[in-house]
Amino acid sequence: MGLLVSVPLTLPVYAADDLAYEVEPSYNWTGFYAGFAAGYGWGDARAEDVDGYNGDLPFSYDVDGFVGNFYAGYNHQFANGFLLGAEVELGYLGIEGGRQSPVTVASGAPADDSFYSTDGGVYGALFARVGYTFDRVLLYAKGGVIAADIDQGFRDTDATVLGGLIDPTEDNVDIGLAIGGGLEFAVTPSIIARLEGQYVDFGTTEAIGDGFRFRQDLDFAVVKAGIAIKF
């Protein structure tokens, strides 16, 4: 007669909770933030000798320079990933450039004779933002109003017809429009890096000297990198 040996077989039993794994929650972009950005701007100014002081046809010249600013704002992230926000900037536009009147260049006049120029200064801006989040990554667009202390003028050191120096400069606060967009990345829960591009258009300014009008248009692009703290 054969001998039967019974071997107990025990299988582990897991509860449903034991099989679950922990999922890290998505990054939450809602909240206030503040930071600093710096970069480079370049574009052109278009000059017009309105009343024929030198007889120039409209022409343009290059402008460029350093741009730096502090920024602060608030984001609200919706459940579907979309984001709305508002942001302010306060900084410095080092945009500058100049060019001598083409007519005086052709006549062999000194380099500082009949010279058009642009010099940037401090600025402030207010933006609305819209974006879409991918966990720690935010893609966004922004648009708003910018006000800046930009001097655009015309200088003639040899104004023989007028009997002396003519130096009209438009030095009021200029108002323009700015649009742009960029990418932000949450390096940590409280540190956010960004890369951003903007297009700025200040439209037309006009300087008047001894009854002569000198108009200039100014627009430029800016690329900046920044770092901010989220509160």
Task: Write a brief structural summary.
InterPro entries: OMP-like, OmpA-like_TM_dom. The protein is mainly β and 231 residues long.
The gyration radius over C-alpha positions equals: 30 Å
Write the CATH architecture name: Beta Barrel
Strand content: over 45%
Major β-sheet, in short? 8 strands, antiparallel, barrel
Please give the share of residues in helix: under 10%
Low-confidence stretches: 19-23
Number of domains: 1
**What is the CATH C level class, in words?**
Mainly Beta
Please state the structural category.
Answer: mainly beta
Walk across the major sheet and give the strand order.
Answer: 1-2-3-6-7-10-11-12
| Tally of separate helices | 2
Q: What's the number of extended β-strand segments?
A: 12
Mean pLDDT: 86
Describe this structure in words.
This protein has 231 residues and is mainly β. It has one domain: Porin (Beta Barrel). It is built from two helices and twelve strands; from the N terminus they run αββββαββββββββ. The strands form two sheets. The protein has an eight-stranded antiparallel beta barrel. A hairpin with a 2-residue loop joins β11 and β12. It is elongated. 28% of the residues are buried. About 2% of the residues have low confidence.
